[in-house]
């Protein structure tokens, strides 16, 4: 008997776009599943929509609207890196549409917390390279600092990804996540996939949250798992079907 058809919605992290999943989506679709890879406002092919008004809530609405307008249900909602902030907000806005949350080496925020608070290392990296453009504070400019965070070192991978990277609106890192129904979010099954190199630099006082899930798996690769280990990333996601 074949596995049931599922819908994966893959949410990228800072500085990326839906393009970053290009090596993972064919593997999920080949297994018979639907895949959506929305690009968040102000990034990737939607960089022209960047404005001072783009914040965390904008990105939550981006993904929540995909679920609503595509009429998706029982979704496996995956967030990578900063995408963990986004999927937590989406789970609060549309819990009835989500069957499973996956935090892929991602931020795992609490109510009222920003990414800058939950991941101070990201804040330090970002502020070291912040630039103001047309009234928007931008971080994660393509270059050495962003490269150090993403962990991609293979020259061929860098040649593919770096032209597609965009600077990221810093406001989305400092906006607090507002949850209206924490109980509904907590009731959604979740899986956490950690990369050891990222765990090693997470704040010790919050480390337990990266082990608080029904399933906690390890993927020993760079932070940008979908680029450095697409096959292994897809195989873990398919284990949830």
Tell me what the structure shows:
By secondary structure, this protein is of the alpha/beta class. The protein has one domain (7-238): Alpha/Beta hydrolase fold, catalytic domain (Rossmann fold, 3-Layer(aba) Sandwich), CATH 3.40.50. The protein has helices spanning 25-30, 56-69, 83-93, 115-118, 120-127, 144-150, 155-161, 171-174, 182-186, 196-199, 225-228, 230-238, and strands at residues 7-11, 34-36, 75-80, 98-104, 131-133, 136-139, 168-169, 190-194, 215-218. The strands form two sheets. It has a six-stranded parallel beta sheet. It has a three-stranded antiparallel beta sheet with strand order 5-6-7. The model has no long low-confidence stretch (mean pLDDT 95).
Which helices and strands occur, and which strands form pairs?
Blueprint: E1 7-11, H1 25-30, E2 34-36, H2 56-69, E3 75-80, H3 83-93, E4 98-104, H4 115-118, H5 120-127, E5 131-133, E6 136-139, H6 144-150, H7 155-161, E7 168-169, H8 171-174, H9 182-186, E8 190-194, H10 196-199, E9 215-218, H11 225-228, H12 230-238
Parallel strand pairs: 1-2, 1-3, 3-4, 4-8, 8-9
Antiparallel strand pairs: 5-6, 6-7
User: H/E series, N to C?
Assistant: EHEHEHEHHEEHHEHHEHEHH
Please outline the major beta sheet: 6 strands, parallel
> What portion of residues belong to β-strands?
15-25%
Question: Regions with pLDDT < 50 over 5+ consecutive residues?
Answer: none
CATH architecture: 3-Layer(aba) Sandwich
Gross morphology: globular
Task: Give the CATH topology.
Answer: Rossmann fold
What's the helix count? 12
- The top-level CATH class is Alpha Beta
- Counting DSSP E segments of at least 2 residues, the number of strands comes to 9
How far is the first residue's CA from the last residue's CA?
Answer: 13 Å
**Helix content estimate:** 25-40%
Number of domains: 1
Strand order of the largest sheet: 2-1-3-4-8-9
The radius of gyration over CA amounts to 16 Å
> CATH homologous superfamily, by name?
Alpha/Beta hydrolase fold, catalytic domain
Overall pLDDT: 95
Question: What structural category do the secondary elements indicate?
Answer: alpha/beta
């Amino acid at each position: 008997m074949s596995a049931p058809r599922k819908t994966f919605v893959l949410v990228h992290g800072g500085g990326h776009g839906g393009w970053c999943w290009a090596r993972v989506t064919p593997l999920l679709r080949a297994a018979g599943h639907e895949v959506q890879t929305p690009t968040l406002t102000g990034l990737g092919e939607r960089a022209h929509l960047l404005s001072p008004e783009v914040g965390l809530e904008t990105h939550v609405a981006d993904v929540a609207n995909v679920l609503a307008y595509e009429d998706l249900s029982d979704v496996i909602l995956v967030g990578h890196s900063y995408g963990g902030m986004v999927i937590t907000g989406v789970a609060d806005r549309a819990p009835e549409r989500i069957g499973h949350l996956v935090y892929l080496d991602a931020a795992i925020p609490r109510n009222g917390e920003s990414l800058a608070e939950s991941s101070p290392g990201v804040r330090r990296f970002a502020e070291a390279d912040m630039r103001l453009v047309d009234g928007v504070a931008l971080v994660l400019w393509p270059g050495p600092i962003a490269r150090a965070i993403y962990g991609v070192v293979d020259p061929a991978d860098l040649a593919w990804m770096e032209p597609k990277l965009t600077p990221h609106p810093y406001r989305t890192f400092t906006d607090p996540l507002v949850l209206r129904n924490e109980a509904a979010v907590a009731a959604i099954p979740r899986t956490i996939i950690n990369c050891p190199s990222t765990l090693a630099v997470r704040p010790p006082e919050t480390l337990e949250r990266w082990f608080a899930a029904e399933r906690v798996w390890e993927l020993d690769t760079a932070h940008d798992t979908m680029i450095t280990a697409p096959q292994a990333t897809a195989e873990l996601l398919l284990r949830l079907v």
